[in-house]
Amino acid sequence: MLQDTAFSGQEAPGRCSASEQPEALNQALPKKKLLMTSSGCSTQPSLTSTQQQALSAIDARLHLLGDYAVEAFRCQLWEPSRAVQELEPDEAVMMCKLYDHASAPDSVAVLSLRGALLGYVPRRHTHRFVHDTNFGHVYAINQDAAGLWRLTVACRPGLSPLTLDAIPFNLVPHVDIHSALDPKEWARLQAATFETHGDKCEVCGPVDQFQCHEVWRFYEGYQVLKLMGFVPYHPDVCAVKRLDPCTPDDNKGMQHAKRILQLMNEWDPEEVDEYVRYARELACRRSKQEWGFDLTWLRDNGFTIPPRLLGLCGTDIPKLVDQEQSRVISDRRSAFVRGRCCFQ
């Protein structure tokens, strides 16, 4: 387990990667997160492409983990007094990009699996987070030389996470674009997706079977669900992505999804339950308002927006929407700096 010194006043490393300081990470973290402390070189034997494609979704994911180095990011705490009291060593957290009117285009928030805001990744490191969501865990909480409380999180910023999509209720019956598209258009879209991404699942890596699935982005301030494209997923991953988070816990589909989430995201059962509760609450909160689609990706890539979905299309999110809100963000950041939790 993490030693008590990890939460002492000693200064934690500002940023390290497992390739630079693997011993420090391996010695500090408990065995249940051992996979997260690999040095970026898989401890499993190399497999041929044929052997990789024969792996199950879980085995393929575990093999893929070794291809991504673990990195530690020291973040600003939003409410230090609360975080120091509530956070546990090795607790799972998530890093989320915030795409709405109250977020900067490069903001990455650190949240607990309950959805509570813990802080922000420093701006100089946000470019490392290529996905809208990443999962990691608490490495340390301590004070720096200036007396500011810092949260250090360990994660693989380049690794695709497995998440539940908290779709607003009014759009749930319509998010399967496959069922709305003309069969010939769907076949063309699938072929283009598989050609772009190759014979691999976005979450698991090379596998022997995969399906084409939508990638969505949520714009909370506009109540718009924006289609960002399509990626190949293993059928087990698709089953999780298509599952309504409000599905009862005793449902076989939910039980299967929890097992997949636990193994692929390196969680324990309590963390899985916590994340599912968060996804349910998020879906219910979003559903208090009517949401619309932004399906301009289809049109921009030579496909026809299905007529039956046109009536559900809301505001088209401008490509520079976040930059248009720069003044609001500047004010928020200034207030954050005045609270002795400065961005760097």
Name some characteristics of this structure.
single chain, 344 residues, alpha+beta, six-stranded antiparallel β-barrel, 13 helices, 33% helix, globular, disordered N terminus, disordered C terminus
Task: Annotate the secondary structure layout.
Layout: E1 15-17, H1 22-28, H2 49-53, H3 57-65, E2 71-77, H4 80-86, E3 92-97, E4 108-112, E5 117-120, E6 133-143, E7 149-155, H5 177-180, H6 183-197, E8 200-201, E9 205-206, E10 211-219, E11 224-233, H7 235-241, H8 252-265, H9 269-286, E12 292-294, H10 296-300, H11 307-310, H12 321-324, H13 326-338
Parallel strand pairs: 11-12
Antiparallel strand pairs: 1-2, 2-5, 2-7, 3-4, 3-6, 4-5, 6-7, 8-9, 10-11
Short characterization:
By secondary structure, the chain is of the alpha+beta class. 33% of the residues lie in helices and 20% in strands. It has helices spanning 22-28, 49-53, 57-65, 80-86, 177-180, 183-197, 235-241, 252-265, 269-286, 296-300, 307-310, 321-324, 326-338, and strands at 15-17, 71-77, 92-97, 108-112, 117-120, 133-143, 149-155, 200-201, 205-206, 211-219, 224-233, 292-294.
Question: If you had to describe this structure to a student in words, what would you say it looks like?
Answer:
This protein is of the alpha+beta class and 344 residues long. The strands form three sheets. It has a six-stranded antiparallel β-barrel. Strands 10-11-12 form a three-stranded mixed beta sheet. Strands 8-9 form a two-stranded antiparallel ribbon. A hairpin with a 4-residue loop joins strand 10 and strand 11. The chain starts with 14 loop residues before the first strand and ends in a 6-residue tail after the last helix.
